[in-house]
Amino acid sequence: MKLVLNACFVTFIILFFAVIPNANANNFKLNKSRIVFEQDDRRAELKIYNESNRLQSYRILLTEMEMNQEGNLVPVEEYTYSAKQYLRVGPRIVRDIPPNSFARIKLIKKGVKERGEFRSHLLIEAIKTEVAKQVAGVFIQPNIKYVIPVFVRNYPDEEKASVVLEKHFVDKNTKTLSLTFKREGLGSYSGNLVVKDMSGKELYRVNQVSIYPELQRRTFNTTISADESKQPLSVVFESLEQGNEIQFQSNI
């Protein structure tokens, strides 16, 4: 049987639940990797920078994602704690942004009466993508998308989420150290997870990780070997919103 393949269009989706700020793509970048509305916040702004050498247009929409037991975000039709009803986003389409310029996307929070944390995800997609390239007879046209979380929080600071290190163990399959955290309080818990030895040397780091409200516990599988894990270690969560200040620390 002869297979004829005329074209192939590839989509790259970049999920920002655990990424660095000022994330880059081939043709545009964002100035934020997450947006947080605290109780008294009413407005926020996101900038889309066109880093290509031609005019670019972008589509913006709110979508829903849920964290599964493995800690991965998956698209869903409905999300129990959706923030959509509390958000107004505009414009939804921005057209013909010149090279080395940017577009502003404004988010406005509506009145929130219900107590808790609500979350939706902002999807930003390049409408005009890179010119299709032919590789071995296949046309490839990358379509870059970013997906970043938008949080709406309606509760006092003293009720915000915290974590405890529930257990640590060496995974039987990977032979590396695993850490299980239990989330307590309201809303999600986010930070940079760092493991150091007692001299302060970093043995493991993963930036911008979260435990969302749909999970009570989450296990992180590190790259620290079984032998390395036998020494005293310090497990730290750095804050994402307070200049990397330490918001959790435990010695194991």
Automatic annotation (TrEMBL):
InterPro entries: PapD-like_sf. It comes from the Bacteria. This is Pili assembly chaperone N-terminal domain-containing protein. The lineage of its organism: Bacteria, Pseudomonadati, Pseudomonadota, Gammaproteobacteria, Alteromonadales.
